[in-house]
Design a protein that fits this description.
Distance between the termini: 33 Å
CATH architecture: Alpha-Beta Barrel
Shape: globular
Structural class: alpha/beta
Number of helices: 13
Order of helices and strands: HEHHHEHHEHEHEEEHEHEEEHHEH
Largest sheet: 8 strands, parallel
Oligomer: single chain
Number of domains: 1
Strand order of the largest sheet: 1-12-9-8-5-4-3-2
CATH superfamily: Homocysteine-binding-like domain
Helix content: 40-55%
Number of strands: 12
CATH class: Alpha Beta
Length: 301
């Protein structure tokens, strides 16, 4: 198993690359609406491994695990709360098998869907479910924990603390921001990039950033907002392939690989450290991003 961490890699390279979407490809492979992606770790292992391998073969520096909705609270909604440990462990084992010693594995941890301030769940319950998930991901072979698509500080802080206190892994945390009427960016809970950075770095995250919500172009001002707060902290960006549209009853992400990659130079100039993809992105998108970054670095070296 590769032991060099993300921060160590960034000491020798100014830009790293992550994978793209998994659920998008699962849908092409037959995932039905409402079906659990995480259940595929047990029932469709070969298909999950193929997705992981498709990204490893591109030469990325890290891939995630098929565990985004794998926390026990979310799984309880479909009667799978007792399977959380197994499904997360399998998720990490599959990504680890694909990655080998070629790249790092980030254990994906998404939000629970519950709001603490509404009393939907207690802090102890939320902490415990995150602790269960991150421990299982570590046992399966993850190199780091990636807490992603968050919008609430209290939930994200509990997830980060659970990872810090229950694993020996690096902790990444990314929030999803939306553009406000005044032109700046906040989460749906009203949290700015600076507020998120201050709170989550204090909680123990070593890498922060943004994912989902928008395409690559909108990520540029968000990265700049992070850099205004901290010029050195590693920043991860995983953009969607554009803003989704509904066409013939299906969700479509319109941004082509070349269109997405066209914003990479500006994203690099803004100060990004790691680039990957979120909803709607495919290996073709990641390939275009990597190629564009290579050309840009060559032209400016």
């Amino acid at each position: 198993m590769r032991t060099t961490g993300i921060q160590e890699l960034l000491k020798s390279r100014s830009l790293l690359f992550c994978d793209g979407a998994w659920g998008t490809i699962f849908q092409f492979a037959g995932l039905k609406p409402g079906e659990s992606c995480e259940l595929w770790n047990r029932d469709q292992r070969k298909k999950v491994l193929e997705v992981a391998q498709s990204y490893v073969d591109l030469g990325v520096d890290m891939i995630e695990t098929n565990s985004f909705r794998g926390n026990g609270i979310t799984l309880a909604g479909i009667g799978l709360e007792n399977d959380a440990v197994e499904l997360n462990r399998l998720a990490a084992e599959i990504s680890r098998e694909a990655a080998g010693d070629k790249c790092l594995v980030l254990g994906s941890v998404g939000p629970t869907g519950k709001i603490l301030m509404m009393g939907d769940v207690s802090e102890n319950e939320m902490y415990d479910t995150f602790a269960e998930q991150v421990h299982a991901l570590e046992q399966g072979g993850a190199d780091a924990i990636c807490i992603e698509t968050m919008s609430a500080l209290d939930e994200a802080e509990l997830a980060v603390k659970a990872a810090v206190e229950n694993t020996d892994l690096e902790v990444v945390c990314t929030f999803t921001f939306v553009k406000t009427m005044s032109g700046d960016y906040k989460t749906v809970m009203g949290i700015t990039p600076a507020q998120m950075a201050e709170k989550l770095l204090s909680a123990g995250a070593s890498i922060i950033g943004t994912n989902c919500g928008y395409g690559m172009e909108a990520m540029i001002p968000i990265v700049k907002a992070f850099r205004d707060f901290d010029s050195n902290i590693p920043l991860l960006v995983q953009a969607n392939a554009g803003i989704p549209k509904i066409e013939d009853g299906k969700t479509v992400f319109p941004e082509t690989p070349d269109e997405m990659a066209g914003h990479v130079p500006d994203l690099i100039d803004a100060g990004v450290s790691i680039i990957g993809g979120c909803c709607g992105t495919t290996p073709d998108h990641i390939t275009a991003i990597m190629n564009k970054a290579k050309v840009y670095h060559t032209a400016n070296s």
